[in-house]
Amino acid sequence: MGSSGLPGGRGPSSFVQSRTLFLINLAAIMESADERLLPAVYQEVGVALKASPSKLGTLTFTRALVQALFSPMAGFLAMHYDRGTVIGIGTIIWAGATLIVGLSTTYFQAMIGRAITGVGLAIVIPAIQSFVADSHEEGRGLAFGWLNLTGNVGGIGGSMAATMLAGGRYFGMDGWRVAFVGMAVISLGVGWLVYAYVVDPRPVSEGSGPGTFRESLSSSMTGVRSVLKLRSFQLIIAQGVIGSIPWQSLVFFTMWLQLIGFSHSNAAYLMGLFSTGCAFGAVFGGWLGDRAAKRFPGAGRIMCAQYSAGSGVPFTWLLLLMIPQDPQLFWLYGALLFLMATSISWCQSACNNPIFADIVPPDLRTTIYAFDRAFEGSLSALAAPLVGVLAEVMYGYKFDVLKASEPSAANARALSNGLFACMAPSFGICAATYGLLYATYHKDKDRVDAKVYKDRERRPLKMEEVSNAAFSL
């Protein structure tokens, strides 16, 4: 298990820092790959477990809800324990859960596996985000962009491999099961490497808090209450609850493409183009957000986020309702998916994560990233089953287990209508909600800069003092 620094107060060597950042990004790659594994094989899982679109959406809902509910625990763990250990253990947890899903023979077993996966992801994601924030004082937007890019590399690899494997049988197992078992084995290895070799740049004593559990829990709750009072945090959570709905809905895209008539391999390539667009969009959005913040302090990042969210409305209209649903139009779908992904993927790297890092002291960063995921994920998780319900109840999707793996123009149209009904309004409301940040962000940032960072230069503060100084309203 990696230590939190070197003796005598010195930080880790450049080699150790490079190794640590490499392993943290490797964990981010595996997290994204695991998260996109199930949506990539929805059609095959539906046939194997006799699950309709609404039931498949409920599997994603279960994972997302559990992840949201357990996210605050990540804040407590990362504030009081070595973050490399936290990330490593979380990775091992989700690896075991992925194996459970791959070996499931009933829908209920798969649901249990996805719920446990949510626990592991809840622990890992906020800890990784705070790790990046602490490692990059300048250019945080670009740093988060690169983190999103590496994550999307995992998403591309995981979803493409799973979709291509899904149509066959290997070692006597269905291809989708092989994909889950393989992901579990690789994730176990990555989890052990992170646990053993990642060195937290923050000394444990800085985040370890008081000696007893009760005092530590009280200290954490003080930070939590402070986080909840931030106006900018409240607004980003409000837009995030709505803005996460389209991203939760995207879990049906691979299945939708297969219903149109695209082969497993072509559907995988198209989703690979989408993920590639997300990767480049996140980096470009982070870079643009940094430049905009220097040019228009207090407004530049928000402007980038408004454009990115707002662009989702015309793109979803074109993709889901306007162009013909014809598998011969591979390159048209590919171009539109890539352009859409490049445009809608700026918000986290350009705005949300850098703003959180700006308005919260380092001691509380993991907490605020954790509660962001808790509030946003708990409500937006309803999007996946909602898409399935709308497609089945309002737009005429017909589930037949004997024909579930075959293309169906009627079902493709019903699913696209359900997707549009969830995605387009959410993008528009999200963009409008970002506008309220113009009145709060600069005030929150100035308060923290004036009352926390200057004070911390004069003397070290305890957690409670930092919280009260920064967030007294």
Automatic annotation (TrEMBL):
CDD domains to which the protein is assigned, alphabetical: MFS_spinster_like
Regions annotated as coiled coil: none
InterPro entries: MFS (IPR011701), MFS_dom (IPR020846), MFS_spinster-like (IPR044770), MFS_trans_sf (IPR036259)
Subcellular location(s) of the protein: Membrane
PANTHER family the record matches: MAJOR FACILITATOR SUPERFAMILY PROTEIN, SPINSTER
GO CC annotation, single: membrane
Domain Major facilitator superfamily (MFS) profile: 20-442
Pfam families for this protein: MFS_1
GO molecular function: transmembrane transporter activity
Keywords tagged on the record: Membrane, Transmembrane, Transmembrane helix, Transport
Name used for this protein in its record: Major facilitator superfamily protein
Domain of life: Eukaryota
Membrane topology recorded in Swiss-Prot or TrEMBL: Multi-pass membrane protein
Entry keyword annotation includes Transmembrane: yes
Homology family: Belongs to the major facilitator superfamily. Spinster (TC 2.A.1.49) family.
The keyword Transport is annotated on this UniProt entry: yes
TM helices/strands, residue ranges: 86-105, 111-132, 144-166, 178-198, 235-257, 269-290, 302-323, 329-347, 379-397, 417-437
